[in-house]
Design a protein that fits this description.
15% strand, 425 residues, 7-stranded mixed beta sheet, alpha/beta
Length: 425
């Protein structure tokens, strides 16, 4: 006879049916097979309410900002609302949120502005683990004599070499740029620890959270980072970028902008007219995650608590999918999985996994899977330094599988069966 669970301690099953019902595109079929969207790291699907928000903007609020008429006023209200939503997402103040074209463009613009205060011999630390959008913008400052120091990895598990990081942060370091999670191998970096190292040296800390945002709760106050950037289209929203920056930094550094534009932060960092219909979609994406949180925990008292509840539910669910995938892949002869493979260390990685299968070109595998309605990515995913460091760049890179909370165990099994079919040909 089993012992009944104490009230409030029962483990609630993740409601994957409810989740998938929110995403109309998941019903797409390829050659008679319902598509398995395992391509999330390059951009997730969007829930219905994001689509509705974009459409509603065009129907009711399509105007430029600060006009003396209804649609412009609605547009201004929408932007304020979306900024407040992202503030809850980051756990910051609304005036510390900047919208932009994408993470790459935002980072280039910020690097240029920060570069105004740098002089020859000043140093910036980047890493081998990062997407090039968190490397190339800082390397542009080499033109004015800034020294870029790149931190290596531990190849056996694709984690940052923290001892190398400590050596490369010096009294000359002005900024440390680190990714929250790797978009190839899924490694989650100890960002809070790295922030402390950067600040102890008097350096600013810039975090690329693009790949982490769909998988884990972000708390910039707890991290104490100076800047953090992410992309809503990676967490169920439209194709734009968002930046958090401490208010004192936005007020201290000077953005490049046109003269008539406001000098008030954060708007002065948003050059030109924004893609306002997509800003409406950003707010709706945050609200979708919060709605998921309330579905999992009806006791959430506000949006931030609802976001916390959502990630409390999605993290173990995604880890379960990752465990299922990892176990299945390890039975396939000739496979080489990059990154952390020990289930006991899965808290150090997210549910993105890359591998090579013998000498097979990853594009050939991706094409084989795509014909069967299984969507994966092949290549280097712009993490060029890591692809070169792992000696796979000249071989077509890797095949990447990205699991998010709308994926299912059945999709994982479908992928594994297709890979076994591929190797048996």
């Amino acid at each position: 006879m089993s012992t009944p669970a104490l009230p409030g301690t029962e483990k609630k099953v993740f409601d994957i049916a409810w989740v998938r019902e929110q995403f109309p595109s998941l019903k797409l079929q390829v050659n008679g097979q319902v598509a398995a969207f395992l391509d999330g790291p390059a951009g997730t699907q969007v829930p219905r309410q994001v689509m509705d928000a974009v459409q509603n903007y065009f129907l009711t609020a399509n105007a430029n900002t600060y006009g003396a008429f209804l649609t412009s006023q609605r547009n201004d209200e929408m932007i304020l609302s979306a900024r407040a939503a992202m503030a809850d997402f980051f756990n910051c103040e609304a005036n510390e949120v900047v919208f932009g074209q994408n993470m790459t463009t935002i980072t280039f613009a910020l690097a240029r502005s920060l570069g105004r205060e740098l002089k020859p011999g000043d140093e910036i630390v980047v890493t081998t683990l990062d997407h090039d959008a968190n490397v190339a913008p800082w390397r542009t400052l080499e033109e004015k004599g800034v020294v870029i120091r790149q931190v290596d990895i531990r190849e056996e598990d694709c984690t940052l070499d923290l001892e190398d990081l400590k050596r490369k942060i010096t009294a000359k370091t002005k900024l440390v740029a680190v990714g929250y999670a790797s978009n190839i191998v899924g490694t989650i970096n100890p960002v809070a620890q790295i922030v402390k190292l950067a600040h102890a040296a008097g350096a600013l800390m810039f975090v690329d959270a693009v790949h982490y945002a769909p998988h884990g709760l972000i708390d910039v106050k707890a991290l104490d980072c100076d800047f953090l950037v992410c992309s809503p289209y990676k967490f169920f929203g439209p194709h734009m970028g968002t930046l958090y920056g401490k208010r004192e930094h936005f007020e201290r550094f000077r953005p490049y902008k046109v003269r008539p534009a406001t000098n008030t932060s954060p708007e002065c960092w948003e050059t030109g007219t924004q893609v306002q219909e997509l800003i409406a979609g950003i707010g709706a994406a945050v609200d979708y995650i919060a709605e998921l949180g309330r579905h999992c925990d009806p006791g959430a008292k506000n949006r931030r608590e609802a976001l916390q509840a959502a990630y409390r539910a999605t993290h173990p669910y995604e880890t379960g999918l990752l465990s299922r995938l990892m176990g299945g892949l390890q039975t396939i002869p000739g496979i080489r999985i990059f990154g952390i493979t020990d289930p006991k260390r899965f808290d150090e990685r997210c549910s993105t996994l890359s591998f090579r299968l013998g000498d097979h070109n990853p594009t050939k595998i991706a094409t084989f899977l795509g014909d069967r309605g299984i969507f994966t990515w092949d290549g280097n995913f712009y993490a060029l330094n890591l692809s070169e460091r792992l000696d796979v760049e000249q071989k077509g890179g890797v095949l990447r599988v990205g699991l998010v909370h709308y994926n299912t165990a059945e999709e994982v099994d479908l992928l594994l069966a297709a890979l076994c079919e591929f190797v048996s040909k």
